[in-house]
Amino acid sequence: MAAKSALFENYEKGESTVKEKDPKEDFSQLPEKTIVVKVKRGTKVKNIMGFVEKSLKEEENRHIIFSGCGDAIEKAISCVEFTKATIKDLHQITKLSVLRVVEFWDPIKPDLDRLQVTREIPTISILLCKDPLDTNELGYQAPSQPEKTPKVQKPHKRKKPDQNRKNNTDRNPALADKIVKQETD
């Protein structure tokens, strides 16, 4: 921690460059109409899934790539799993790579040198396709078998307060007496 505070005491952040790449570069022989969904940390899964379902129901859309970086990797994987649960027989290829961020720190004191810091942030790109893909490709997953695919469960609805009140009377006889007394008055 002391080294980090020394950095902030003696340096201020200068320019930074991000060497981004197109997720399509990870996969070979993709059609022009491939849909790319860039999932970010603040992305709402519900919004993505509506777009994805609508897009993949159109016959001409056969390929879709989900990409996520850093904190968004888990969310990208969740979107892929939701898509595979709702749209059957999708072939998958997963690729991992890094996003390079180069930061320059300028010295506050004249006797110090300029620092260059390179951070590598993990990224994931997942291709889903309605058509069969090369099974020898690294990261390939065949479509799931129907009996092995977990069903997407809808969230449980909460009971209304009135229902909870009646159920609490079984556990608390004093509360039951008060409720009966209020109802008879």
UniProtKB/TrEMBL annotation:
Molecular-function GO term, any one: RNA binding
Region of interest: Disordered: 1-25, 138-185
Keyword Transmembrane on entry: no
Keyword set, alphabetical order: Nucleus
Compartments, as annotated in UniProt: Nucleus
Main subcellular location: nucleus
Gene3D superfamilies: Alba-like domain
GO annotations of cellular component type: nucleus; ribonuclease MRP complex
Domain DNA/RNA-binding protein Alba-like: 36-96
TM region(s), chain numbering: none
Record field: compositional bias (Basic and acidic residues): 10-25
Gene Ontology biological process terms in this record: tRNA 5'-leader removal
Superkingdom of source: Eukaryota
Biased composition (Basic residues): 151-160
ATP-binding is among the record's keywords: no
Classification via Pfam families: Alba
Family (UniProt): Belongs to the histone-like Alba family.
Protein name: DNA/RNA-binding protein Alba-like domain-containing protein
Organism: Oedothorax gibbosus
